[in-house]
């Protein structure tokens, strides 16, 4: 990953380059920024920059052997520690290798990986992961080996705020007295939740929201016209991951239509409508069905923000936003938890090769119970 792949944030990049160029890199750095601004991508770009044998123009070269392996996230001196949920690999893979493969795939294709996106990749939409004591132990063990190829090795710790207290205390000892040639790159979305003892031992760099102008340019580069890019940048408020989702959803009328059918049939207790909806969903195929479930979970959360009268936290534009405003009264504090659980459960059953007809019929009918006039 190169700095140029992360949108904007010029001041932050300059600061990080300076630390590296002047040999002032602390042994533990923490990049703190909201989800979607690019803090995780920046940490990886910084590691690649420091490892590059031919940096120029303020970035890693992208072509030297070190850069090529860093770009694939498979450099032997690049280690990751991130929260995970319990997974059940489908093949005979061991869980650790399975997680590593999913992680590399997820981050490589998306430098703006967010926690919810990551848990969705693991088949656990709506769940919260944790860095367990065992994981921290396994990571710490790796650090006692000498770097394989570089003068130093990197440990990128994503979301130290999601660390089990036992894990945090073990890691703390290592951060206090780190093995030689180790650089810790913490990336936090909630530094206020990081253990104060860890916080006091890292040098913190704040990663600000992406500037609207930078975002507009980047969105145009991704193919949006000027008006669309400006509309998205305004709603996304510095969160580029969100902006990309909005851009892609523009091309995704099918998912929006399915959301509308489901919620409308649900709140009007229209069983006929639910059965029609199920037949449309079954035509999608298993992979798209999983995407639909992740989409539904995200959308009802957005709609719920309008129900709470927090429009500034609702990241929707165009027809999706108009629809959300109409159905907001039906998605409320009494049913939001049930709805999210229902999508999560359906996702697991679809991923586990359950009978899709039964899964989606059950899900559809639950919308009648949860949104239907009798309950609301
Ligand atoms: Zn290079």
UniProtKB/TrEMBL annotation:
InterPro entries: DNA_Rep/Repair_Clamp_Loader, P-loop_NTPase. Pfam families: DNA_pol3_delta2. Gene3D superfamilies: P-loop containing nucleotide triphosphate hydrolases. One of its GO terms (biological process) is DNA-templated DNA replication. It comes from the Bacteria. PANTHER family: DNA POLYMERASE III SUBUNIT DELTA, REPLICATION FACTOR C / DNA POLYMERASE III GAMMA-TAU SUBUNIT. This is DNA polymerase III subunit delta. It comes from Candidatus [Bacteroides] periocalifornicus. The lineage of its organism: Bacteria, Pseudomonadati, Bacteroidota.
């Amino acid at each position: 990953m190169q700095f140029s792949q992360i949108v904007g944030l010029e001041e932050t990049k300059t600061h990080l380059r300076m630390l590296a160029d002047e040999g002032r890199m602390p042994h533990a750095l923490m990049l703190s920024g909201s989800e979607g601004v690019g803090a995780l991508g920046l940490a990886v770009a910084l590691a690649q920059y420091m490892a590059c044998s031919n940096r120029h123009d303020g970035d890693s070269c992208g072509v030297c052997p070190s850069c090529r392996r860093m770009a694939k996230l498979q450099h032997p001196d690049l280690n990751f520690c991130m929260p995970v949920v319990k997974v059940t690999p489908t093949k005979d893979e061991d869980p650790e290798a399975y997680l590593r493969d999913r992680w590399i795939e997820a981050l490589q294709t998306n430098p703006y990986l967010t926690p919810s996106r990551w848990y969705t990749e693991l088949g656990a939409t709506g769940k919260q992961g944790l860095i367990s004591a065992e994981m921290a132990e396994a990571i710490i063990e790796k650090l006692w080996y000498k770097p394989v190829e570089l003068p130093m090795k990197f440990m990128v710790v994503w979301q130290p705020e999601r660390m089990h207290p036992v894990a945090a205390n073990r890691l703390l000892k290592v951060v206090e007295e780190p093995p030689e040639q180790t650089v810790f790159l913490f990336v936090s979305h909630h530094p206020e939740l990081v253990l104060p003892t860890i916080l006091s031992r890292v040098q913190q760099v704040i990663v600000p929201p992406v500037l609207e102008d930078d975002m507009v340019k980047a969105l145009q580069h991704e193919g949006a016209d000027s008006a669309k890019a400006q509309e998205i940048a305004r709603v996304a408020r510095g969160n580029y991951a969100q902006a990309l989702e909005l851009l892609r959803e523009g091309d995704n009328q099918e998912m929006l239509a399915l959301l509308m059918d489901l919620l409308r049939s649900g709140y009007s207790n229209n069983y006929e409508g639910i059965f029609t909806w199920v037949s449309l969903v079954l035509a999608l195929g298993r992979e798209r069905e999983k995407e639909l479930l992740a989409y539904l979970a995200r959308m009802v959360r957005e709609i719920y923000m309008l129900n709470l009268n927090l429009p500034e936290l609702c990241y929707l534009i165009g027809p999706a936003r108009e629809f959300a405003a109409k159905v907001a009264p039906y998605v409320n504090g009494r049913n939001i938890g049930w709805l999210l659980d229902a999508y999560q459960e359906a996702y697991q059953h679809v991923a586990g090769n359950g009978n899709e007809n039964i899964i989606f019929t059950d899900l559809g009918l639950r919308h009648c119970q949860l949104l239907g006039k009798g309950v609301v």
